[in-house]
Write a structure and sequence with these properties.
With 283 residues, this protein is α/β, with parallel strands linked by helices. The chain has two domains: 6-178, Rossmann fold (3-Layer(aba) Sandwich), CATH 3.40.50; 191-278, Pantoate--beta-alanine Ligase, Chain: A,domain 2 (2-Layer Sandwich), CATH 3.30.1300. It has helices at residues 11-21, 39-51, 79-88, 99-102, 122-125, 129-144, 156-168, 198-203, 206-219, 224-237, and strands spanning 6-8, 28-33, 54-59, 93-95, 148-152, 174-178, 241-249, 264-272, 275-282. Helix 6 (129-144) crosses helix 7 and helix 9 (206-219) runs antiparallel to helix 10 (224-237). Pantoate binds at residues 32-34, 62, 65, 133, 136-137, 155, 158.
Amino acid sequence: MPRTPMVVRTVPALRRAVDGLRARKATVALVPTMGALHDGHVSLVRIARRRARKVVVSIFVNPTQFAPTEDFGSYPRTWKADVEKLTAEGVELIWYPELKAMYPDGFATKIVPEGPATVGLEDRFRPHFFGGVATVVAKLFTQVRPDVAIFGEKDFQQLRVVTQMARDLDLGVKVIGSRTVRERDGLAMSSRNVYLSADERKVAPELHRAMKESARRLREGADVRSAIAAGETIIKQAGFDLDYLDVRHAETLQPIAALKDGPMRILVAARLGTTRLIDNIAV
Ligand code: PAF
C-alpha cells in the first residue's frame, strides 16, 4: 500500500520537510500545479520521478494570475482526489500553502517578465497572467529549491516564460517541458475541461484538428497566412470565439515566416461558451 505524501502548509514546515528529503544528497523535483489533477499532471509526476529521487508537488490556486473577471472563485478544487492520485504515484511531499504563506500581509513584490511574456499571445488577452505566474513560480522555486521542475507543454508560453526566468535570475533549477497529454479525440487535458457542457465537449477537439490542418499545410509548403486561415475556418465553423491562432518560432515565440527559419509552433486560444481553451502543437 503506497504511503500518503506528507502535506505541509507553512514555509518553515516546508523547509524542514525538504531538508529531510535531501538527506543523503537525494535530488528533488518539483511539479507546480493548481490542483484539480488529471492524467496530464500524473505524466508530469512520472517525469519528475525519472529525473529526481524525491518528488514534491505544489497545489496552490494562485489568485494573482487571475483577473477579477476570471474563474479564480470557481476553479475546480478536488483536494481528496488529488491526494489519492499523488499517493498512487508515490509522491513524497505535497506543498499546499495557505494563502498567507504565499502572500503575507504587506506583500509588495512582483516579477515582471518580458521576452516570451510579451509576444502578443496569451499576454494580449490576459495581461495580468504572466506577472502572477512568474511571481508565484519564483516563490515556489526559492521555497522548495528543487533541482528540476516539470511543466506541461500545453501552457507553451508559460513554459517559455518560466524557463527564461529561471535562467535570467540564476534560480538554479532546470526547467523541463513535458508533452501534452490528450484525450482519445485529441482534446488536450486541462483542469478547465470540466466547465464544458456535453455539446461543447463534442466540439472541443476541433481545436486540435484545426491546428493539425494548419501544420499539414505548412509542412506541404503553404505560406503562414493561408495555413492559418485554413485553421481559423475550422475553428470558427465549429462555433468557437477565436482569440488567436498563430505560428511562432518555437523557442523565441517571435513571428516566423517559413519552416527553414527554425522550429515552428502553432498556438491557439479560443472560447466555447464561457470556457477558454488553449493548446499548441509542433509543426
Ligand atoms: O500551470 C499552472 O498550473 C500554473 O500556472 C502554475 C505553473 C502552477 C502557477 O500557478
